[in-house]
Prior knowledge:
Two copies of one chain form a homodimer. Chain A is of the alpha/beta class. In chain A, 41% of the residues lie in helices and 14% in strands.
Amino acid sequence: MSSIREVARLAGVSVATVSRALKQPDVVSPETRQRVLTAVETAGYHPNLTAVQFRAQRTRNLVVLVPKIANTFYARVITGIQQAAQRAGYGVLLCNTQGDDQVEAGYAGLVNSRQADGVIQLRAHDPFPASNRPQPLPMVNACEVLDAPPCPSIQLDNRAAARDMTEHLIGLGHRRIAMIKGPRRSPLTRDRAAGYRDALAHAGLAYDATLLQPGDFTPQSGYAGARALLERSERPTAIFCESDEMAIGALQGIKQAGLRVPDDISLAGFDDIEFARYCDPPLTTISQPAEDFGEAAVDMLIAVLEQQPLDVAHRILPYRLLIRDSTAGVGPNDGPTPAG
Amino acid sequence: MSSIREVARLAGVSVATVSRALKQPDVVSPETRQRVLTAVETAGYHPNLTAVQFRAQRTRNLVVLVPKIANTFYARVITGIQQAAQRAGYGVLLCNTQGDDQVEAGYAGLVNSRQADGVIQLRAHDPFPASNRPQPLPMVNACEVLDAPPCPSIQLDNRAAARDMTEHLIGLGHRRIAMIKGPRRSPLTRDRAAGYRDALAHAGLAYDATLLQPGDFTPQSGYAGARALLERSERPTAIFCESDEMAIGALQGIKQAGLRVPDDISLAGFDDIEFARYCDPPLTTISQPAEDFGEAAVDMLIAVLEQQPLDVAHRILPYRLLIRDSTAGVGPNDGPTPAG
DNA sequence: TTGTAAGCGTTATCAG
DNA sequence: CTGATAACGCTTACAA
Lengths: 340, 340
């Protein structure tokens, strides 16, 4: 691999001139510039970016901490991140963390070891151990956000979205609305559950903790949650899952129990993943601007890194209630229990 | 950020000793080592990896060129890549290329600019322009492989897998078996179509080009392909899609046409993505060891980079025919047209 | 407009 | 066992 020195030798100029000819072309004479360009060509020269980064004391690389790359929602967020980063001239180091604190800390260490300039964290957890915490903190927290994030953040108003969905179900006449929740610790779960309670309270409906099922955002847990709910003596007339993946599992569980959606039971998801509209029936859900999360995260992180002021440190992105065919009015046998 | 010099100053030793204390602890005296470690602690020192890479003239980073990160099959491959890379002490630069030659060439350039040591290419395309092609080529081609790859490769025996699936359908009594294909240019498409023809020929069935529909691996194209096939006067009794995502779209198309799977028509996919078993009915498909592709690619690339001999330069990974509920025998009305 | 030379942080070599 | 020093490739004062 030829270095700048080789080019300088070929062009009969100093290395400084080569550098200038490439980085500030207008400051060298046209003839020199041409000679350098030719030499670059014949030498097959490519600047050594590692050397450039080393000298510049920054890499223009961003670390992205993703709990699970295979999750289709995160995949969309990542797509947005990549696009925005490329546009801004930054590279992306994608790290699959499985939500493991240790692994996250390790990857966050890329900033300490100056392999990257900043971190985009897609989980509600601070990956920087108190011991080696860069100042100012080059981080942005997106999607699942800490309660008091030590950095800029971008999230959905999960509580409002869940309230809207629950109100949609209530509006259809549902009174026994179950919820299959996400991971216990997640703020997402807490906020969506809060929105669900908000809607119940607002409609004057009793909150019944036995209508809540635990889950972990996987189809398997949705399946299990649905089966458990259907075994109750008084089964719910609607199930609201905190993610589409769980709803897809729940849908299978409901069908295997011999019930129909939405005739016998309504089903709602959250996220609007690609397969939601290919479900049978297509899934009513909340659509999130996944790619926008990624773009916004990159823009804000770069602003932090380049010490530009942020107009909003904590952004809320809009959602949409997408009513498809998996939710409908309660059937004649599912309404309020007749008196007597 | 403190450098090795700061640590040396604090410990009252030379920078060389600090470096040794950290990298070859057994070569410095215990007391010195202890003093250095203490100094590292109080200085909050982290080695500057950029400097290390610069000096070592290698990064221990691998570039992965992914056509579409949001594709669930690739997501699994990536998961395998990450695991294997981490185990081997390599980092991963994940690049979403959308199958764009320009973008790929740009990312492959990370090797030329020494931001990465090698490339894992998941598409049948050589990302290195002839002009700047490193020698020896630090690349591995996995999943969708070039016909004469200029580097080690890992792939499925797509032709055999498609033949197996087609034979499964023929064994069920199907005679009019349609295929919804992947992108025209892809070797995957060509090989799977070849396997389909193999099976037809072997069973003495006529090959009917009008039973082939174009597609691009998206659910949308599967939907469109299915609708087109069902409009034929003599509709097929089975549809074999070259990917599960297309099969999921096709399934919706079939249902919307008022037909049942598998009663009226059998449907098969390819890949065994997570949602395949959550389809209604669960999808018969070919399962691929996606994570193994990733791991094998990393292992082979590292062998290339570290100039270790490869026992097999071109690996074939095993598939499994997964018979679920979307394929069944032909119905009484779907058999060979009665005479007269 | 161009050249000289320092310096980024690390490690390897060589001398002590 | 430890220290001094050169070198990796590049950019940028500063000098010419």
